[in-house]
Design brief:
With about 350 residues, the chain is mainly α. It folds into two domains: about 250 residues, Orthogonal Bundle (Fic-like fold), CATH 1.10.3290.10; about 70 residues, Winged helix-like DNA-binding domain superfamily/Winged helix DNA-binding domain (Arc Repressor Mutant, subunit A, Orthogonal Bundle). The chain contains 15 helices and five strands. Strands 3-5-4 form a three-stranded antiparallel β-sheet. The protein has a two-stranded antiparallel ribbon with strand order 1-2.
């Protein structure tokens, strides 16, 4: 393709919107299916008695998967223990995943204040993910290589060039209403990854932007979608799709991939949500029958907020004195609802059936 040489900075990266046929019959059919699946998930979240209840858990799962794509690996146990326990975890991967979760929340709160996606917001997100003061990439020589170490792409170089291309993305996302929002999301995701504006954290920032665009377009109220899980499973197809746009201006494959991702993850997200709600209902019922003096709706919500809980979480929910809530937790463990585990000097309680749903 004119202007593209994998070893040269791609400063001729075409601006958006693309000069290509985007809304083919096949793409529009997939768009309808993806939109429907997303609407069902969003409706189910809205209908929850307490929509914020599962959000921490869902965000951590997305953060874990997104970080895994960058080979930042942590276990669910490490992750949830680190969030609940006071013990400071030395595992840098766990810290990065928690920073990513914070970046998702940061993005959503910024959109609540001002519904625009900007270059400055992207910089804020990457700084939150990396916990540093990174800005737009200024040092030349950035290249992307495959597993064999061969250069497969050289992103645009020079801060001014990068900022101009980011300004074009801003306009496309915030002002272009002529393209279906999900197709627009796929296009801007390619463009962000092709610009590669930061020295590190581009993939994770780009994946948060997917969730933010769904919010901006009023397709998803809360970031309860594990998009990264799909990319992990179909990683080669993802990179092939990106490359086919760059090398051949072939958008169709990549857009279809992104629409499949939205549809598949929304369907799976809905199933997972329904499983958790069902588990919570049956567990609540069983606690009520076996431990009527311990049971309360608020208690059940606390032990379903995250897979791990501790005495302080129950105290914070005004469920009783330290001694009372300590007795509740002991009773719940003796009855088989929770399992205690020592983390540092603290005792945490694991809701194993909830963790099982999250891990499947």
């Amino acid at each position: 393709m004119k202007g593209f040489n994998k070893s040269q900075p791609y400063n001729d990266l075409p601006l958006l919107p693309p000069q290509a046929e985007l809304e083919t019959k096949e793409i529009l059919t997939k768009t309808i299916r993806a939109s429907r699946a997303l609407a069902q998930l969003n409706g189910a979240i809205r209908n929850l008695p307490n929509p914020s209840l599962f959000l921490d858990t869902l965000h951590l799962q997305e953060a874990k998967a997104s970080s895994e794509i960058e080979n930042i690996i942590t276990t669910n146990d490490d992750l949830y223990q680190a969030v609940v326990a006071d013990k400071k975890f030395d595992n840098p991967a766990t810290k990065e995943v928690i920073s990513y979760k914070e970046a998702i929340w940061l993005g959503f709160s910024r959109l609540e204040q001002r519904p625009f996606i900007t270059t400055n917001l992207c910089i804020e997100l990457v700084q939150c993910i990396k916990q540093n003061t990174a800005g737009i990439r200024t040092t030349p020589g950035t290249t992307l290589s495959n597993r064999q170490g061969e250069v497969i792409y050289t992103p645009p170089s020079g801060e001014q060039v990068i900022r101009e291309k980011m300004a074009n993305i801003e306009t496309f996302i915030n002002e272009n209403d002529s393209i279906d929002p999900l197709i627009k999301m796929a296009i801007s995701h390619y463009q962000f990854e092709a610009i590669h504006p930061f020295s590190d954290g581009n993939g994770r920032t780009g994946r948060i932007l997917l969730l933010l665009q769904l919010k901006l377009e009023k397709l998803l109220d809360v970031p309860a979608l594990f998009l990264s899980e799909y990319i992990i499973k179909h990683k080669d197809m993802y990179y092939e799709g990106l490359r086919s746009v760059t090398e051949n201006n072939e958008w169709s494959t990549f857009i279809r991939y992104m629409l499949d991702m939205v549809e598949t993850t929304a369907i799976k997200g809905l199933e997972r949500l329904e499983s958790i709600v069902q588990l919570m209902d049956t567990t609540g019922q069983e606690i009520k029958e076996k431990l009527p003096k311990v049971y309360s709706k608020d208690l059940v919500e606390v032990i379903f907020k995250l897979p791990y809980t501790k005495r302080q979480n129950l105290i914070n929910a005004d469920l009783g004195t330290p001694k009372t809530v300590g007795n509740y937790l002991i009773a719940l463990e003796e009855a088989g609802f929770l399992k205690s585990i020592k983390v540092g000097k603290e005792k945490l309680y694991l809701n194993r059936p909830l963790m099982n749903i999250l891990e499947n």
